[in-house]
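Quick entry, no commentary yet.
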Amino acid sequence: MEGNEVKKSNTPTLKLNYKRTFIIGFAFFGILLLWQVYDSWCPTFLTELFKEALGAATIEEVQYLVGIMMALDNLAALIMLPIFGALSDKTHTKIGKRMPYILVGTFCCAVAFPFVPVFFHYHNLGGTIAMMAIVVFFAMMYRNPAVSLMPDITPKPLRSKANGIINIMGYIGGAFATVVGIVFVLSSYLGVDSSKWLNGTANIWLIEAPFLVASVLMVISALVLFFLINENKVEEEVKPEMELGEKLAQVENSVAHDDEKPMSKANKIMLFLILGAEFLWFMADNGIGTFMGNYTLYYLHCETSSNMINTIVGGVGSVVGFLIGGILAGKIGRKWTIMSGLGLTTVALLIWLILSLSIPVTVPSEGYNSFPIYLYFIWAIKGFGMSLVHVNSYPMVVELCSSKKVGRFTGFYYASSMAAQTITPVALGSLLLLESFSFQLLPVYSLVLVAVAAIIFMFVKNIKIKNEKVKKGLEALDIDD
């Protein structure tokens, strides 16, 4: 039997199918590829367009508008992700319940995405915003179903390890976008003080290429997933393993298979605590992520390619965390793995704040400054820490539901993260309007939020996997064909 093997003995075991999990990861590959390009370029596009439209003297004056626009995208996601998750739970087709949304959403998103830089190049604010909105709608159509596909066919005790693999595939997608961003440099397109873009001498291909590459790779990743994973067939094959996984779930009370039966009070409290802490750590991480490109270009006065390299460094730290996050959770539990990640992130942000206040930034007479070396180390630590958080938090949420509600609970998870990402660009953009709060204090914002998230998460009950039931060590590395 393909998949996770159940031994016919008194002590049945589960074994993760690595090959199939990597293939499922192509869906997340396309997701992070898209958002890496979107988050790296679009805030700067909006900054320049709003500054031009309003005749603003400084970029700080329009950051609250940039924050609002980025927040509106996330607000739309907050509404649509639970809807498409619940819809896909109830969908039944010859190609599966998730696959129709993945294919339609990916194709439409890939067609619209390259038009975002085209409208920006021609100084069309309305067109740029409209294309961003179209991209977000179709991205949300496939995001929840794509993410739900992993827990659909992976037993609960194995989902942290599987989620680590899925996230590694996603970060490979993000790395593709980042490498392209290093080759096609946004600051070279704009010129110093946006002179090339303003006078019409900018080369459009410097910003068009990353969006085209992202679109092509998104389509390829969706086709790989479609042709190599028969969703209906695999779901039928893994039913025995899924039933065993329910018995070994890391929950205080067992989850009812009856869709009409409400959650137990203990599980409901656990869900609210996880989602509350998740909301805060996403506010922290997404806040600095949204404005890091502008921080690099407008505050540090460095080339945008430097931020791309920094993103890769953070991604490497994240991949290491994804590789060991599931293993660590099996030893000390998901709660303390997440707490360790939040602790490391707090340390990284604190070091960044101290160095930011200690080392002055000068405006170069010409060209750009060198990117601060210490930020590479900070981003690696932060990436590692947050990967321990992300690799375990999503499995903790879908652990609390039956297989019939995976899409709905995935919607809860993303509703919390998207609510955070809706609020945080506006909140941080508004703070930057204050004379007492500048880009220099960027780490303060995230530092406070991560600390509060850790306090809330402390109240989550720690429940470890019954390790004797799950294959481990070299035995767990077996890969089924």
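second:
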Amino acid sequence: MKIGEYIRKIPKIELHVHLEGSIRPVTLLKLAEKNQVDLPVKTLEELKKWYQFVDFPHFAELYQTISKCIKSCEDIELITKDFLENQAEQNIIHTEATFTALTHYLNNGLDFADQLKAINRAKEWGWKKYGITLGIIIDIPRDFATQQQSMLVAEWVASSTRDGVVALGLGGYEVGFPPVMFRTAFDYVRSHGVPAVVHAGETEGPASIWGALNELGSIRIGHGVRSIEDKKLVQKLKTDKIPLEICPSSNICLKVYDSIHDHPVNQLVEEGVVVTINSDDPPMFNTNLMNEYQLIAAIFNYPPQQIKDFIIAGAKNSLVSKKEKQRIINKIETVSAGLLNPHANQPREDD
């Protein structure tokens, strides 16, 4: 079986993708028209072109525009349904998506409980229609949240673990906002039994990852690619089996690396670090999870077994119950076996 077909058909897991950053251009245009938000472009074709990443200021402008177009909890339900539909089209059976609820609370006064109810309505719809599941990571936007606002987000998260919230995240631009600044909020959720999943080691180096681990107790590292610059850190990640949520195209677009050929994903794999593959903000980086797998398979000549290993790593490190985790892993293994050995366990014609 060709690797592209295997990637398309194997059930997949995604652990690092932003809900707001996954809004497709057609959906953004619909929201802008509904909420009377002026966009810098008018037609869908112009919007698609504007959507493509240019540089970090453009990326920030695009993200701010998207946030301004989300005015109500109905809009949040719409973008979540749209997101889940797109995940289903890629055969992604479980996702843990990051959502920045604080932005919508500050911009439009949307109560967190109402935001979460909107997401959960969409989750139920996604399960009934596609049989796929979604966990929500509520993050603190490190580059603009005050200490008081960070604690507010922590309180939201600690009180919502029975409503589909699986972790507290820390996102946004790393430079100037080290993990230690947010220790109080993360200590609070940890005292309530809530895990931390922190972005680190993307626009900052290994010190940011050390901070995420030692100061915030992060159980996974969002990105984490710059751990390759510190041998002791690589060894710690390997020894403690701390998974990295690697997003190759995002790293290239944001100039963390000049090209995919320079990307350390394969080096980290060879070092024995647990690696998962993800898409981050897919339409902005002109990608999706399937494309990310296609890209690294082509560049690093990965066979189906390695692709399956990435997916299984995602499943094992997901924040679902042990029973659900085993169900997901069994499904991946069964489908993979059927794809690689299509005639196995089938009766012979003369039986």
